Amino acid sequence: MKPTAAQATELRRIRKELANLGLCLPGSINIRTGRCGKTNCTCHAQPPRLHGPFRSWTRKLAGKTITRLLSQEQLDDYQPYFDNHRRLKDLVHQIEQLSLDIVEADERWNST
C-alpha cells in the first residue's frame, strides 16, 4: 500500500503544519454572566446589570473535570494555545482520514 502522489503531498503538508504548531491547551472556554442571590442587587433590576463576565477554562485531568477562572489578560495570553489545540485535533482527524483513504484503496479488500 503506497499513497498516491497527492496523498503523499497532503501528508507532507500536515506534517509541516504539525511541526510548526506550538503550545496547545486542551479544554474549552466558557464566558458567562449571571445573577447573585441578593434580591436588592442591580442584577435583578429591569433591565438587569448582570455580574461578570466570568471566563472559565474546563478540561479533564485524570478522569476528573477541572475548571479554573481566567482573567481577561490570561484569556488573551492563552487563546492562541486553545486555538492550536483545536487545530491539532483537526490535523489528527485529517491524518486519520488520509490513512483510511489509503487503506480502503488496498486491492486486497476485494480479493477475499
Work out the helicity level.
40-55%
Residue stretches low in confidence (pLDDT < 50, at least 5 long) are none
SSE sequence, one letter per element: HEEEH
Q: Termini separation (Å)?
A: 17 Å
Question: Strands across the major sheet, in which order?
Answer: 1-2-3
Shape: elongated
* Total helical elements: 2
Sheet/helix structural class: alpha+beta
Domain unit count: 1
Mean pLDDT: 95
Strand content: 15-25%
Largest sheet: 3 strands, antiparallel
The total strand number stands at 3
> Radius of gyration, Cα only, in angstroms?
23 Å
Explain what this protein looks like in three dimensions.
This protein is of the alpha+beta class and 112 residues long. The chain has one domain (5-106). 43% of the residues lie in helices and 22% in strands. It is built from two helices and three strands. A three-stranded antiparallel beta sheet has the order 1-2-3, covered by helices on one side. Helix 1 (5-19) packs antiparallel against helix 2. The chain is elongated. The model has no long low-confidence stretch (mean pLDDT 95).
